[in-house]
Amino acid sequence: MEEFLPSSKAVVTASANKSALAHVSVGELGQNQVAIKTICSGVSTGTDKWVISGRFEWGNFGFPLVPGYQRTGVVEAIGSKVTNVKVGQEVFATASINYLDATAGWGAHTSYGICEDFEVFDATGIPPARAAFGVVAQVGFNAASRIIANPGDRVLVIGDGVIGASGALSAKARGFVPLLLGRHDARLEKIHSLGIKTANSNTVTQKELSEFAPIAVIDTVQSPEAFELYYRALPATWAAESFGNARTGIGQIIFSGHTPDGANTWADMAHLQKQELTVHFVSGWIANRLIQTLDLMRADAMSLEKIATAYTADEASIEKLFSNIAAGKNPDIAAYINWA
């Protein structure tokens, strides 16, 4: 074992929805571990919300905890068996190991942290604030990668959050033509600035969606109301005239992201069957897709920092950010904490 820093500044959730800037103790560095000084940590206003509330149904963490699962930084030290990164390298990292006095609720909102080597990826040449969204961007990339279609085909994206924006940018990078629907004009304007066509779901008409004629939908909202908005625009096998769309058996829906609180009905199964729609469910990450996502960021095809809000790692900023997240009132498309 190698010794590392005795403490780190971090976001600490002491009990449900009670988060503040505090110090945590960092353990010793193991042989297969990497110590990283954080530059930026990307906030997931969805998943972070459920983790700090103690309602993340895929496996809750005990309090106190350090939330967050994506950050960028510089390698400070490596264990004796680490070969994939070197000291001084700019990297992206996912989950940290537990702190001595707090659970790692994946533990990325921290100024220093230790990760297993397989959680660390090269981020050389990527702006740190951009790479800090590696995992959520990969969820959008994953959704777009499932689409079976030809360049020039149209893809409808539901949701004006960071996963929706990532899915639209990934679809565009594959040569598709995306249209993103959301409910917040300010968010839609920012996403449009990245070269993505947008529309407000409160005012768009079924006729407009049918005329857009998407071959696939990336649904990041995942609710019956969202499904009702778009399913008629997809290729239909039966009742083609009533749908205004005679293409058959090629429509696709990709449900993308984590849906909390036991929600288990997002679509009408009868309509899925009648239209012979193919459905995918995506949520997590794997190394290969994460590397491809970072490559898109490196190529300036996924510049999420341009639509994100920066927060400094001070008490007032952290209290404001995480109070808004806990209340479900965060106005940002995306947010990151600047630890530098």
From TrEMBL:
UniProt similarity note: Belongs to the zinc-containing alcohol dehydrogenase family.
Boundaries of every Alcohol dehydrogenase-like N-terminal domain copy: 30-110
Protein name: Unannotated protein
SUPFAM superfamilies xref list: GroES-like, NAD(P)-binding Rossmann-fold domains
Cofactor(s) recorded in Swiss-Prot or TrEMBL: Zn(2+)
Keywords: Metal-binding, Oxidoreductase, Zinc
Species annotation: freshwater metagenome
InterPro entries: ADH-like_N, GroES-like_sf, NAD(P)-bd_dom_sf
The keyword Protein biosynthesis is assigned to this record: no
GO molecular function: metal ion binding; oxidoreductase activity
